[in-house]
Amino acid sequence: MPMGFCKNKYIREEELIFELLKIIDKVDMNELGILTRMEMEIERLNKFQNMVLGEKQPHKKHKPAVDMRVYARYVLKEGSSIEKRELLANLRSKIILKDKKLTLGNYDLSSSK
Predict the structure, then answer these.
(1) Which residues contact 109 (CB under 8 A, 6 or more apart)?
(2) Is the full-model pTM beyond 0.90?
(3) Using the 8-state DSSP alphabet, how is residue 95 labeled?
């Protein structure tokens, strides 16, 4: 069998996203990487509100508690292809695709680097 050949059947992006949503609560994530991305999005939203809508909001001194998994689900459902790719780059668990189903592998990818 040639190197790089995958025996799995084709899976549509929508199906893959659905499968990811089913396991996202169990996946080990690089929360710092996701938090950084989320803070950039909040800053972008604030700039939009200030520039386009003319809303002036004072900067809060404390940051609200953020559930990374809720943000991850949002990005998977509503994010652009680039945002989804960035999110997936911050997943540390080994994810296995077999028969159009995703499962978690038995080891952590971050420990294998």
Answers:
(1) 91, 92, 93, 94
(2) no
(3) E
